[in-house]
Amino acid sequence: MKKLIPLLSLAVLLIAGCTGGPITIGGQMPVINSFNASPVSISAGESASLTWTVSGATSVSIDQGIGNVALSGTRAVAPTTTTVYTLTASSPIGSVTATTQVIVTGVTPPPPTGLPVINYFTATPNNITLGSSVTLSWNVTNATTVSIDNGVGNVAASGSSIILPVATTTFTLTASNAAGSVTANTAVIVSGVSPPPSGLPIINYFTASPPIIPSGSSATLSWDVSYATSVTIDNGIGTVASSGSMPVSPVSTITYTLTATNAYGWRSQTVPILVTGGGPTVSYDFVQQASTAYWWTKIGATITPLPFPGALNDNRGFATYRTNVKLNDGNTYTKVLETHPQWVNDGWISGKYSGVYVPPGSKLRIKVGLIQSASAGNVIFTISKLSAPAIIDTNVFYAGGIKVLEAPLSAYYGQTIDFVLNVNANGSSAQDWAAWAEAQIIQ
Questions:
Q1: 410 φ, ψ to 5°?
Q2: pLDDT at 3
Q3: Domains located in the chain, CATH noted
């Protein structure tokens, strides 16, 4: 019997060797039970504590220079800017991660290292006839404010604007920061401004094609006028060139009136459009037009313009498109506008949409929520006329799901106004992944 035991042991070893190595029975992925920061928001110079518990891991590490740590513990951190910490737990089966964020408020941005740089400021075309339009285009870096004179006003650091000068004009762009200001000029020559022949203007034609449309469709207004110093069309269209065309989408039967004026008086001509059927149409889409808006926030006492699209890690806040994302109703949306407020308590972000026409009979409709997993999100969505009371003002928190709201626009029928979309953090800005699935003027 004493000789049998070694032989049995040898047999077991041979069997194990035939299998190609040790046999692993069972195994599981690590589990991160918790990973939190407390407090989640600190002032510059203060510290926060990271706490965590992990099970089933052979190693645990935290980035941002912390390195390997025990399965559970606490670590004091004192970030100088808002920081996201990532914990990684590993075992022979694989790895899992979790993140937590410490928001740092009261951080003073470094002053500009030099004057702003105007990369370009152009007018295209720079030689036109009276009644034609010009596109001003510009790009500026290292500036806190950018403005253009002759009624254009404050603008983003990069963009374009369509203007209709009535005389030869020199436009001046001014870019400023804490170090000072720089300017650049571009001139537009306008010809054809000599006095017209004596007599009233002549309306060569003013037509609508087709003259009968179903509700939700559009017609095209076309016109040509001679010897006029100004040409206007009513129902919210306003001043137009002496010759041109434009699509219109009236919600009901309507008559448009063109008025041509010069020093001798005026002439007018009308054209009707008959609208049949029913059903709402979209006359303006704030989500689709987000790239044309002027986005900004306020850092300290300074109004700070924001680019579009913004970067997801911009702690000043950002506005950008997100595609194929789930919101807090569990549905996937092809395209939404995310507007994350500045990463401070009660931070905010706003976008100004200039020159939006409000058709008679229209109303405002929004569909808003938070991107999925933003469980701490709690924001206030607002749409208003610039410098006027809110048209829609609603609080959305993650557990509350998507909100769909409509509001009348009767106070602004027939007007061309500036709208402002705003998102306020309503306290902490943590996970304020605010999304506009819809923001439309409908008829």
A1: -60, -30
A2: 42
A3: 31-105 (2.60.40.10), 117-191 (2.60.40.10), 202-276 (2.60.40.10), 282-442 (2.60.120.1060)
